[in-house]
Amino acid sequence: MDSYAIIGAVSIFGACICMGIGSLGSALGEGNAAAAAISAMAQQPDEASRLRSTMFVSLAMIETSSLYALLIAFLTLYANPFWNYAINQ
Amino acid sequence: MEWKVDFSNLLDFPLIDEEIRMTNFDDIDIISIGGIGINVTIFNSWIVIALITLSAWLITRNLKYDREVSKIQIFLESLVMWLKNEAKETSGSNNLQYLGMAMGLFCFIVVANLLTFIPWFRPPTASLSTTMALAFIVFLAIPYFAIKNAGIKAYFRKFIEPIPLMLPMNIFSEFFSVLAMGLRLFGNMLSGVMFAGILSAFIPFFAPLTMQTLGLLTGSIQAYIFALLAIVYSSGVKENKITEINLEEK
After folding, report:
1. Which of A57, A67, A79 sits opposite B188 (nearest CB)?
2. Does the beta carbon of B89 lie under 8 angstroms from any beta carbon of chain A?
3. Hey, is the C-beta of B221 within 8 angstroms of any chain A C-beta?
4. Count of beta carbons in the 10 Å neighbourhood of residue A33
5. Average pLDDT over residues B131-144
6. Residues in A lying within 8 Å of B, measured between beta carbons
């Protein structure tokens, strides 16, 4: 295996693992947050609009961690800095 | 001064290439004026700005009241009222000081995101430079509103709360919360564009349509969240007037 093959294989493997684990945590967290918000809305329908806006903000906050994973996956797949190192060798 | 206009770059859709790769929209020049290139992101931002300005001017040109109100005026009024209520509930203050910033950010982002439905339109929000510029507005707005509302002392006291040991953490979070806003918008829009491009290579015409429809929902929610987070961060430092505000509301 030359260095191209190793870098390519490790990049794809790393991107997949990164997306999988990174989205797992935020998906669980978003599920918990949405469930809590829905039960709170069911208990207090008067406060539903305020709860909904708070829920959207918190969902966006939680989703950020999986978006970081997405950016890292994009970086490893499409803008991998080690490609240039391997090409220059 | 040399003018060169080249619209062919705008019209070909590089995501359906044989090789699917991340397209950096900032690298594609359309117009070059004296050697300075105007790229697709800036050009599409101009389109969005022109669209917002023109429609706002046309709608507010002859405002009516009572029973002769046009439908589009009702739409614009309800949009302003909705965001006003959101700003009031989120910031906890009754005045309209956050409304201009939030409305501007919301309008720009929502128009840019909804225009992804046009196939050749690359949304300017799918470029990191645009979203970081938008986040920089919020970064400047945080100390502005904090000092204006609570004074310079209260603003700097925020950094040593709850204990002075948290000072580096607070400074870090000041930068990173704004950075995360820009990255969130960029990640959401870029993943939408990328996903549509990848799907259109496999199943052309139909499969991207469903993802684009989902992208309309995501784009609107992201614009709402960006405006809301701008209000949340800007109204983070308040003067200790909680009892007064509560009395005012009742």
Report:
1. A67
2. yes
3. yes
4. 16
5. 93
6. 49-50, 53, 56-57, 60, 63-64, 67-68, 70-71, 74, 77-79
Q: What is the pLDDT of residues B20-60, one digit of tens each?
A: 444 566 666 667 777 777 788 888 899 999 999 999 898 88
* B4 close to A (CB below 8 A): no
Going from N- to C-terminal start, the domains of chain B cover 46-249
Domains of chain A: 3-78 (1.20.20.10)
What is the SS3 assignment for B23? coil
pLDDT tens string A60-69: 778 888 888 9
Question: Can you tell me the ipTM of this complex?
Answer: 0.73
Lowest mean pLDDT: which of A48-52, B1-5, B215-219? B1-5
Beta sheet of B29-33, edge-to-edge order? B3-5, B29-33, B36-39
Using CA coordinates, name the residue in chain A closest to B189.
A67
* pTM (2 d.p.): 0.80
Strand partners of residue B39: B29
